[in-house]
Design brief:
This protein has 215 residues and is an alpha/beta fold. The chain has 8 helices and 8 strands. It has an 8-stranded mixed beta sheet with strand order 1-4-3-2-5-6-8-7, with helices on both faces. The radius of gyration is 17 Å and the shape is globular.
Length: 215
């Protein structure tokens, strides 16, 4: 079934990195960016935005920022936000490492979500995986004390890598594994990728970690 492409003008629901430098001087000051002081959660690799759309609709008291390197996918998510006029959410098109290293104030994010990151199957491409020591340190730097990092994947080997990085990091406490729940309808999944994999009967590996108090 062919789907229509998202509309061309999606601002402020979709912004490219260049827009952030032009309109916000390359700084994501949350009260200025969202127009309020509500807690902020970031979805790294948000894809078509099912989590960002659902979460922002369920929690209007919180702000949600999706980051997606694939502009076409990110714009689809932004179009869904625009149709629902979910002004507490936005999608940024680009590499998450840019805002994580240059734009976001330390200890200003309440939660970071990384769902089904690309496993980069070939060994020679493993260095492209989002989860590594540098990324975990960046998350530690951005999360508020008590802030949460959530990560799910259907790739057992990759989850082993993620767990090893997180469980042994001095800044994080490992929390109980989130329970799998039965969806009420076809859109009642954390992400569209979770829906796809669970319908195939594949197991999902879930992790949750909390940022410890700053010493």
């Amino acid at each position: 079934m062919q789907t229509n492409p998202p509309p061309t003008n999606l601002k402020p629901f979709f912004l490219a990195m260049d827009d952030l430098f032009e309109e916000y001087d390359g700084k994501l000051d949350w009260p200025t960016f969202f127009g309020n002081d509500n807690p902020v959660e970031i979805d790294v690799g948000c894809g078509r935005g099912l989590f960002v759309v659902t979460a922002s609709e369920m929690h209007p008291e919180r702000n949600f920022l999706g980051i997606e390197i694939d502009f076409r996918e990110g714009r689809r998510g932004a179009a869904r936000l625009k149709r629902r006029n979910l002004t507490n959410a936005c999608v940024i098109g680009g590499d998450a490492n840019v805002p994580f290293t240059k734009m976001i104030e330390p200890h200003s994010v309440d939660a970071i979500h990384v769902y089904f990151p690309d496993p980069w199957w070939k060994r020679k491409h493993r260095s492209r995986r989002v989860f590594n020591d540098v990324f975990v340190n960046l998350c530690s730097n951005l999360l508020v004390p008590g802030g949460l990092l959530h990560s799910w994947t259907d790739v057992e080997e990759y989850f082993g890598v993620i767990s090893a990085l997180m469980n042994h990091h001095e800044d994080f406490e490992t929390l109980p594994t989130p329970e799998e729940r039965d969806p009420d309808h076809d859109m009642d999944y954390q992400t569209s990728y979770e829906r796809k994999k669970r319908k195939l009967g594949l197991p999902i590996h879930r992790g949750k970690w909390q940022r410890k108090p700053i010493a």
